[in-house]
């Protein structure tokens, strides 16, 4: 009997006990009709070959382990960033259960979001009644200040018209006529979660700036000195947005973060559940029209929003998830240029400290090869930082990256001798990455939790940066932007390198001459 | 909403009724009327729990339910480890259900085993416009080329498939023929079908009947039958549950010829009609196929409950009653063998848990099955409800709950929060979406879908972990820190 009360064995130890091992053997031998060991081994080795890689890259229809999610997830991410706003997803309800679970697993926080629970009858007759009843229920139960409506693939396939549906719902009294119900169509079969973010942010701005779907006059722009800030879809939104606020405050700049979801995904445990916390004030969203300029931290998350904002007469600046010295320099200089305020002494000192840290540590990173995957802007930002550290990015892969993105990353790589052996893979997935890691190995892999399968299969240590991170806790509380955030990224990379060195040098009387305590 | 402390059962029932009236007040009239049917007290002696179930969720409320795809791919088919399950449609559904249910298995992932992978047809706009059948056919070809050791393929339909009228059955048939009779199973589990994940379970069961059983009918078993052959039905091996169950069945002298579907294989599915008895853990998700095997192949089935020593003992004896004395003695031997462990576990944890009140809200069988395990530890379940139960689940629940237990079917986020706020249980057991809501409120919580990444909870080995986990949840020092010492 393996289990005991004094020392309760968890699943990882329990199932290693002889009783269980014997049981597994018998199950396999007698009932599973397993593949013969040699055939298995042969197939396994074959998946590591150049030949397999070629077949793998010849795939045209199948996607395996993609590094992207669907538009509606990004829609919910954006919607929760507004004051007392509940995201309302028009479509079948299972999707919302998935988005809520996905975010809760990453942030370890509740995620509030409702669905119009469309079923077969709505598929046939359209979901208008679901919208009418749904908005009324949401409004009465959750007492929001705004309901942000987006769609799932179901509602999009049957062609439900949100503008007309919301108008009809208001006429039927679901919510008061003046109540804010911005909307965005976010089909799951177009783009990815970053597209959903873009569509909802644009939808919310349009709602407030362009006459609230015909219920109010369009706003006229009276320019002021404030700066709008868009973070884009970002797994570090809690740490990053707080860091950005500190940065703006340090420079004394008047700013508005559009879609500030940093508080709703970081509420205290103090006996109260806050369904809404923080968020961009609705008045501030309207007033953001008057800002001098808008900075987007992630170009590929704001492809439609920025041109819309520009069309109102604001200057727009698109960055690519700035990490590291030069990218942060550029970010700060843009703030300074737009606001006319100097970069503060505090931030300048932080810059020096980051450079100091790089000087102290880059010897351990120099010349090391890295593979990176994730969202397009994140990949760009991390690649730029690796080049600064003297590392050699080798494979850069974004399932939701396009041709334009690939060209832009290539230009970055071409700007540095450390980027010369790197290839960019737009539209590829983590099964492609697996082939790359076998045929053209690298030293370290950077990406989200799903990369742990690649770490295991190919022996490439994974540094967890990206979204989602399910299997490590609280990374999202740390910024990865600004000099301070870059310091975090540097430390995470260094920790992985040192742990890897220790693992490779810890065999007594064999390799432990290099098991150093000073590094 | 002020509620007097409950003393007698009648007080308790009155309190619960008052609570229900309070939460209904927030809804528009039509909604309140509909929701009222799903909330109630259990009345001793009644044939069910007196609540309506398996009815559409109300739009715009925070239902905790999922969809048919989640029931088919996420629960029933996904854990079949040597098959490749295509999430057919846009990328999201497959991404969110990717390895999120901890269906443990042993195998070489990516080579002969595929459980923790995400295969999707990643529908784009052109697939919606022109249909996805050709793409699906091509996907199957590419799977055959890149994953030659797969033993079968299932096609798990997402919402658009049914809406645009793709003929996935025709593609499956044609490709099966092309690949020498390979098992290729189309499942019409589009998320808009039905009212919850429950219909997905049913559709998945039907697909096994039509595309696995009917296809392999008359084929000889791969093994020589014995009078003691049983199949474990409806255990998804979350955290290794089916393993800590299987070991008991084997110790009592039975031979488990198939495991459904945690750590399962297509060979085991095919072999199941040769079993002498199907032992069914999750009734909700797999009663359909068990009934089918009974009707068509004459295989009896019996429900069992492997949570906590009382129910395990009862279940071992119940299973043994279908066999001869050798097995009956085997059951007694197993019970006797583990009793010291159980006594030690209870001796250690019961004093720390005695009298603690629990509220549950889960799916499948757990809103009733785990009650016995809590009672073994001296704890009391004061409220329970199901995400996607039918009335037969609520009938079965009557054997577990006490008079005056608060019952909530398809509870909304709002209702659940209010109930917990007023009843102030010592522990809530529910899912990831609920976990942090209650922890913020300072209420200890365990995820009772995923065992909070712990487990197994089934069987004797699992009960030790269950008891330890409930203790760590309730008695964690953190809950005393929720209020700042200077806060009023």
Number of strands of chain B: 14
Main sheet makeup of chain A: 5 strands, parallel
Molecular shape of chain B: globular
> What percentage of residues of chain B falls in helices of 4 or more residues?
40-55%
Number of helical segments with 4 or more residues of chain B:
20
Spatial strand order of the main sheet of chain A: 11-10-9-12-13
Enzyme class (chain B): oxidoreductase
Cofactor (chain B): [8Fe-7S] cluster; [7Fe-Mo-9S-C-homocitryl] cluster
Function (chain B): This molybdenum-iron protein is part of the nitrogenase complex that catalyzes the key enzymatic reactions in nitrogen fixation.
Domain Nitrogenase/oxidoreductase component (chain B): 67-474
What do these coordinates show?
Chain A: Its EC number is 1.18.6.1. Chain A: Residues 70-497 form the Nitrogenase/oxidoreductase component domain. Chain A: Pfam families: DUF3364, Oxidored_nitro. Chain A: One of its GO terms (molecular function) is ATP binding. The complex is a heterodimer of chains A (519) and B (488). Chain A has 519 residues and is of the alpha/beta class. Chain A has helices at residues 11-14, 18-31, 37-46, 50-57, 71-79, 93-107, 120-125, 128-142, 153-157, 162-171, 193-209, 237-251, 282-287, 305-311, 325-339, 345-361, 376-388, 403-414, 430-439, 452-458, 482-504, and strands at residues 63-64, 85-90, 114-115, 146-151, 227-230, 255-257, 293-296, 315-318, 369-373, 392-398, 423-426, 444-447, 462-464. The model of chain A has no long low-confidence stretch (mean pLDDT 97). In chain B, strand 13, helix 19 (432-440) and strand 14 (445-447) form a beta-alpha-beta unit. In chain B, the strands form three sheets. In chain B, strands 1-12-11-10-13-14 form a six-stranded mixed beta sheet, with helices on both faces. In chain B, strands 3-2-4-5 form a four-stranded parallel beta sheet, sandwiched between helices. A four-stranded parallel beta sheet of chain B has the order 7-6-8-9, sandwiched between helices. In chain B, helix 6 packs parallel to helix 8 (168-178), helix 9 packs parallel to helix 12 and helix 13 runs antiparallel to helix 14. Chain B contains 20 helices and 14 strands. Strand 1 (63-64) of chain A pairs antiparallel with strand 3 (119-120) of chain B.
